[in-house]
């Protein structure tokens, strides 16, 4: 029987920080009913030492070159072969340990009919605009500098939910563009920039939600900090991403974790 969704947790270092450990404990508690796979570099013993509680929790290794940095990991996420490794699942949740889950809404988001959900970039940091305002720029093709600024605007995210077959199809259809983004060393979060600019440039290839809906899926920590005073239990996002490794979780996040 095919799984609805599999949770992929990348491990970059040989030891977890206190923040990463807290995030991992929170996520394992909330997502215990889903298959969880830790992925990391070949030879990284920490991947095999991750908590394996049952048959639904596994580990898989990839070439070490993809785990030297977040930018290097983007290259792996732009390979159709990566997604083919998880073909038993309909959806993948890519969940780096810089993302705090506030509650388990994973099943809900898988059932909303979207092919890709990720935290919105900070649009004020780039000249490309969201939605219809930026459609002309997307069709004509952003400049290299605009792609770089968009990559920066995605911050330290990397948390996203995708329909495996649709993402794999897009990467195959736009394989030349995906190749260019894999080798664009100046662009941070290259996979996010690719998914934002390429598949829906003319005719939509991925079903994406509106900005308002996507903000209920995930917010960058900086965006959350600017909105948290106006947030209530009813309008909290599923996740807050881009939490800085090595820093203690804010009192706000700890309070929210206790209340949900």
UniProtKB/TrEMBL annotation:
Listed name of the protein: DUF5672 domain-containing protein
Residues covered by the DUF5672 domain: 57-239
InterPro entries to which the protein is assigned, alphabetical: DUF5672
Pfam families the record matches: DUF5672
Lineage: Bacteria, Pseudomonadati, Bacteroidota, Cytophagia, Cytophagales
């Amino acid at each position: 029987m095919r799984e609805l969704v599999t949770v992929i947790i990348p491990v970059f270092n040989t030891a977890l920080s206190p923040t990463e450990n807290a995030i991992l404990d929170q996520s394992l508690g909330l997502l215990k009913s889903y298959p969880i796979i830790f992925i990391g570099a070949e030879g990284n013993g920490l991947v095999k030492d991750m908590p394996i509680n049952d048959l639904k929790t596994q580990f898989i290794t990839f070439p070490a070159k993809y785990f030297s940095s977040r930018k290097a990991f983007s290259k792996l996420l732009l390979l159709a072969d990566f997604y083919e490794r998880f073909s038993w699942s309909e959806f993948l949740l890519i969940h780096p340990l810089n993302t705090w889950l506030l509650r388990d809404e994973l099943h809900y988001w898988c059932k909303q009919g979207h092919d890709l959900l990720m935290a919105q970039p900070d649009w004020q940091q780039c000249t490309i605009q969201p939605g219809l305002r930026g459609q002309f720029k997307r069709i004509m093709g952003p400049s290299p500098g605009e792609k770089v600024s968009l990559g920066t605007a995605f911050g330290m995210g990397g948390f996203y939910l995708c329909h495996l077959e649709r993402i794999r199809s897009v990467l195959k259809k736009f394989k030349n563009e995906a190749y260019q983004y894999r080798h664009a060393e100046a662009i941070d979060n290259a996979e996010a920039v690719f998914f934002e600019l390429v598949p829906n440039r003319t005719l939509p290839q991925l079903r994406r939600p509106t900005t308002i809906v996507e903000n209920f899926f995930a917010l960058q920590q900086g965006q959350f900090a600017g909105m948290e005073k106006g947030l209530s239990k009813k309008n909290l996002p599923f996740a807050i991403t881009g939490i800085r490794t090595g820093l203690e979780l804010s009192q706000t996040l700890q309070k929210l974790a206790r209340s949900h």
